[in-house]
Model the fold of this input.
Amino acid sequence: MVRSRGLDDPLAGEPDRVLRYDDPLAAVAANASENTADSRRKGLGGMLKAFAKGLLFPDRTVLWAMRLRAAHSEPLVAKAQVILSTSPSLASHIAAYRIARKTGAAWVAEFRDPVSWLPEKDETGPVRRRLLARLERWIVGRADATVTMSDTFTEYFKGLYPDAEIRAVPNGSDFDPDAIQAKMKAREARLAAADPDTPLILLHAGALYGGAREPGPIIQAAKKAALQTTRPIRLKFIGSDSYLAAEEASRLDATDIVEAVPALDHAATVRETEQADAVLAMLHRDPVGRVSIMSKFFDYIATGTPILVVGERCATLSKIVEQEGAGAAREYDDVEGMTQWIVRLEREPQTMSYDAVAASGNWSADRMAERMSLVFQHVLGR
Done:
């Protein structure tokens, strides 16, 4: 069995077991804005960033991957049985293919996003999209196995590449059952002592991605629910572009309901999650949102706080939350459905409690490491 150590890296301090290849453009990526227009105002670093983003193929890490290809001659790599590469850096797959071919090792390619299916609002041009899709096909066709992040993602890939070996190994996280149990008891105590004048807080933690995650429908739902609840309702948006929620609240005449908070560090965000009456997981309003499991899900489920997914009911995260009994999913256009869920949250909060210890255990890093080990065993058996 493969065991995960999370942040407790078993290789830390053991340089003889780790090979490091510097990324020539790492400093540029760290110091320049992701926005090309802003990057231009940052001088040479911004110009290099814009060049790397616009012209290097498949992505800016290609220079790093070219260096990495030489790793096949290292003794540590030469005896490897399996080479695992992961994206969104497609260049890492190219390097892994060369290393595997030189060493005779099996190659497993892990995709965290499908590049053949980009969001509608993605700025990638049509020519580059076609080239990325062809490269994706090339990678999946040559890897001994392909790993995706969800069952929905796997179904999509199998539709494109029916002859390939494709398996789902979602992300996982390290959970402390005792800590989760304590949070569940703390929530029960808060419910028992709830003051009718205390706001009912629904929290969204994370970026709205320029509006790809639309705050408007949930604001409309909260505004309607406030007419039916005893406790006042507060939607709290925490993130770098939370101001978009404030702007939408102003447009909908709901500024008394919405609170926009700038991005907080992870620990502070988790504390806010623990204190909320419910948490919101808003998906991209785009079919590509079906395939992912956002990282905040692991923070959410470890608190025992009810989760409302706003997005397609057929999306991976929607299915997970409802199957775990951790909350509900409502389509963006189902404002009435969201309204009634919020009303029920205020009137019958105990009915929305769930076993967060069991649910978290289903998504532990160790559980997912075991699934990945089965993939390794399969390719070695072949």
